[in-house]
Amino acid sequence: MSFKGTNIFSQIVSHIDKSSFSSSVRKYNGERHAKGFTCWEELVSMLFCHLGKAQTLREICGGLATCMGKLSHLGLRESPKRSTLSYANKHRPYQIFEETFYRTLAHAQSNIKGKRTFRFKNKLFSMDATVIDLCLSLFDWAKFRSTKGAVKLHLLLDHDGYLPTFAHITDGKTHEATVAREIIANKFRFPAHSIIVFDRGYTDYEQFSSWCEQYIYFVTRMKSNATYDIVSINRIPKNSNILKDEIIQFNGTVTSEKCDYDLRRIELWDEENQQVIVLLTNHLTFGTTIALIYKERWQIEIFFKTIKQNLKIKTFVGTSANALKIQIWTALLVILILKILKAQSSFSWSISNLVAMLRFNLFTYRDLVQWLNDPYQSPPFVPDDQLSMFDIGQHTGAYSALTLKTCPI
């Protein structure tokens, strides 16, 4: 990515491989009924929805329309019409944007080297889901309860860089354990000896057994009604918050058949919440690290909070299932790019502050890398006699090249 006189928004979009995006469009025949409005233009419009905090289709189209003359670097010939963008979001396959997310994820993983919290070399993943509430009268296909609509965003978070490494969208009624067993297990391959941390909603004894067979470790909270036999008792480290450390086997009629492996039950005291927490894991050697791993699960809650507060993922510009999925996938795509920008910057950005500052500067002509490192520095001074008509438009951002060429000064 280089400056070359383009605006900040254009430099942000350049993190998406346009040729790979075009291959996805061809794969899913995304422009079969297109009449001048391409899938790339739709993608840029939805990125502007998130980064520009546009609340409606009208604001997306109007916001882009006010920047005419600055859209050519983005691959837009003109701002879209509201009805055109609405139709595209409703009918074009959301899989195009899903595939673009995963391709950009590979780019993010190669650019972000996360600081490891733990000393062990195992890959660490958090698995959880968040409910996105919907108005049932508008989203009648997303019935959750009698008077409430909702969808669920199921997510795997890689703790190396805290990147969303797998996502899946379902209706609000789909249980988390069902997605873990039928979707995540079939579509995502956990590296051997990796560690997955999750809450009790994902308890599935057959899945536990499958992970044991694949040498994949898990850490979760144990259900209070589980029955078991104690195989052995481990020594408790001194000056730790561990109360009990036991090797167990389930003895229930059903649970013992589904999972007959030795597991580890750890009771520990949670000083912050003044309660006893009971953890279950198939990792038989880690000591106090198990408690720290479970505490690290909070990072996925922080991730959900971040995308809901900073990107447009709680309210939607379209009411169809396809439009909703496009908006969620483009939000996840934006968070990847934001994390790349944050990792490349020497300035101490928070995601919320970065989103806010980008929103104010999307169409300014600045070198993005320099701006990220020193956002409050004034733009470099360029003498008037060194500015061509086009340069004036680029540095001031006030006029397009076309306007300057046709209007006398």
Residue-averaged pLDDT, rounded?
Answer: 88
DSSP E strands, number: 10
User: What is the assembly state of the chains in this entry?
Assistant: single chain
Helix count?
Answer: 16
Strand proportion: 15-25%
Enumerate the spans where pLDDT stays under 50 for 5 or more consecutive residues. Answer: 386-409
Question: Quick one: biggest sheet?
Answer: 10 strands, mixed
What separation lies between the terminal Cα atoms?
33 Å
Succession of helices and strands: HHHHHHEEEEHEHEEEHEEHHHHHHH
Share of helix, binned: 40-55%
As a whole number of angstroms, the C-alpha radius of gyration is 25 Å
Silhouette: globular
Core attributes:
409 residues; alpha+beta; 10-stranded mixed β-sheet; 16 helices; 10 strands; 18% strand
How are the elements arranged and paired?
Blueprint: H1 8-13, H2 18-27, H3 39-51, H4 57-65, H5 82-91, H6 95-111, E1 124-134, E2 143-145, E3 148-158, E4 163-171, H7 176-187, E5 195-198, H8 205-213, E6 217-221, E7 228-233, E8 242-250, H9 255-258, E9 263-270, E10 275-281, H10 289-296, H11 298-310, H12 321-344, H13 351-361, H14 368-373, H15 389-396, H16 401-406
Parallel strand pairs: 1-5, 5-6
Antiparallel strand pairs: 1-3, 2-3, 3-4, 6-10, 7-8, 8-9, 9-10
Characterise this structure.
There is one protein chain. The protein has 409 residues and is α+β, with helices and mostly antiparallel strands. The relative contact order is 0.14. It starts with 7 loop residues before the first helix and ends with a helix. Strands 1, 2, 3, 4, 5, 6, 7, 8, 9 and 10 form a ten-stranded mixed β-sheet that branches. The longest helix has 24 residues, at 321-344. It has helices at residues 8-13, 18-27, 39-51, 57-65, 82-91, 95-111, 176-187, 205-213, 255-258, 289-296, 298-310, 321-344, 351-361, 368-373, 389-396, 401-406, and strands spanning 124-134, 143-145, 148-158, 163-171, 195-198, 217-221, 228-233, 242-250, 263-270, 275-281. Helix 3 (39-51) packs across helix 4 (57-65). Residues 386-409 have low confidence and may be disordered. A hairpin with an 8-residue loop joins strand 7 and strand 8. The protein has 16 helices and ten strands. The chain is globular, with a radius of gyration of 25 Å. The protein has a domain at 8-97 and 317-396.
